Amino acid sequence: MMKSVVAIIDYGSGNLRSAEKALARAASEHATGHQIVVTSDPDIVARAERIVLPGVGAFADCMRGLSEISGMVDALNQTVIAQGKPFLGICVGMQLMARVGREFGDTPGLDWIDGEIVRLAPDDASLKIPHMGWNELHIREQHPLFREIGEGAHAYFVHSFEFRARKHILATTDYGGDVTAVIGRDNLVGTQFHPEKSQATGLQLLANFLTWRP
């Protein structure tokens, strides 16, 4: 049993090295003792203590890439849902937790949190898509992930689609209306923003994830 391994899933989506470096820095600075491993091996994922799913690009492409790794979706369902190990989804990795993505037609997601991924539609027509840059976090529900992260902390976003859900929204940001910034339930959390690009706020959040005991 590799109790201290954090598995970052490599399924051909995203700059995994920046997430790996940020998690390794958070683990080092907070002396959590974790080993950060980038992997596409479902067996390593199954044995890891906690799991990170990054992702950039189109929902359908990411879901296809994840599904094409033999045994990976099964390993995730077993490890995260059945066993309750801590899980962090980042950007599209967060969106894959939804029931369905509406980008380029409907694509089923992992269906871990009831909701859908839809195109951003800001009330202010002058706001550009994609939403790109620094925005404030508005905390809706207190959560261990937000330890030492205050209301209004800034995080870095790059996305054209958002997670629409009725429940489990932990924090929002304002981009021509409320947009889900952090979602979660039980042992699951996801950030629409990129903690690995969000400087002090992001490093604190990653450290909080590493020490979180759901």
Question: Can you identify the CATH superfamily?
Answer: Class I glutamine amidotransferase (GATase) domain
Sheet with most strands: 8 strands, mixed
Query: What global shape is seen?
Result: globular
What does the average pLDDT come to?
95
Describe what is shown at a glance:
The chain has 214 residues and is α/β, with parallel strands linked by helices. It contains six helices and 14 strands. The strands form three sheets. An eight-stranded mixed β-sheet has the order 2-1-3-4-14-13-12-9.
Report what the structure shows.
The chain has one domain: 3-Layer(aba) Sandwich (Rossmann fold), CATH 3.40.50.880. It contains six helices and 14 strands. The strands form three sheets. An eight-stranded mixed β-sheet has the order 2-1-3-4-14-13-12-9. Helix 1 (16-29) crosses helix 6. It has 214 residues and is α/β, with parallel strands linked by helices. The chain has helices at residues 16-29, 42-47, 59-67, 72-82, 92-95, 199-211, and strands at 5-9, 35-39, 50-53, 87-90, 98-101, 107-108, 113-119, 131-136, 138-139, 154-159, 161-164, 169-174, 178-185, 188-191.
